[in-house]
């Protein structure tokens, strides 16, 4: 028994042993005596061993949780037969943690590479859409597109207000409304022309225009001859001059 205690004492006094394991007893607690007569304090050793037992059980639980996390992040990794062994070492946990960290770093590198590829594809697509031949022309064309977009947005906003449309109305509704308005205006113009010419029949309008074309040139020539003959330049002076000649 004394040899066992001596061996335990040498382990506890080892530089590798945690400071918490060995401490001198305080108070009237009976200490065991080694062969050389030196006292050694083991009164708290059962509590320490119980703590170690709890930590070993927690170590297994931690190993199990890390294995679940590893399978979630790396489902292609098959379970190691040694994962079910009774004794779990800290090195085993460290190995799983290192594998997880390495996988995360690889994913970050891959995501950065994919981001660069995505950005390159976006720039190429922009060049095709807006006919940009070089990268140097991308920014000027972007500014041009932004300016044109602002002008169109303002124009659409003004049309919405003028046509008394809701701001959420799509451009197709605006175009349809403008088309209907143009139809109304054209119809009103046609009706006014018909009223002016005194007819509702398009054929009558054509006939009147043809009559005008036949009548107006000779009448215009006659008026020009009268102005030259009477030596006047104003149409209103024709009638007074003729009356004076009578």
UniProtKB/TrEMBL annotation:
| GO terms, biological process | cilium assembly; regulation of microtubule cytoskeleton organization
> Could you name the domain of life of the organism this protein comes from?
Eukaryota
SUPFAM superfamilies, per the entry? ARM repeat
For this protein, the record's InterPro entries field holds: ARM-type_fold (IPR016024), CEP70 (IPR037692)
Task: Give the record's GO CC terms.
Answer: centrosome
- Predominant place of localization: cytoplasm
> Would the keyword Ion transport turn up in this protein's UniProt record?
no
Describe its function: Plays a role in the organization of both preexisting and nascent microtubules in interphase cells. During mitosis, required for the organization and orientation of the mitotic spindle.
Database matches in PANTHER family: CENTROSOMAL PROTEIN OF 70 KDA
Q: What is the protein's quaternary organization? A: Directly interacts with tubulin-gamma; this interaction determines centrosomal localization.
Tell me what this protein is called.
Centrosomal protein of 70 kDa
What is the organism of origin for this protein? Tachuris rubrigastra
**What's the source species' lineage?**
Eukaryota, Metazoa, Chordata, Craniata, Vertebrata
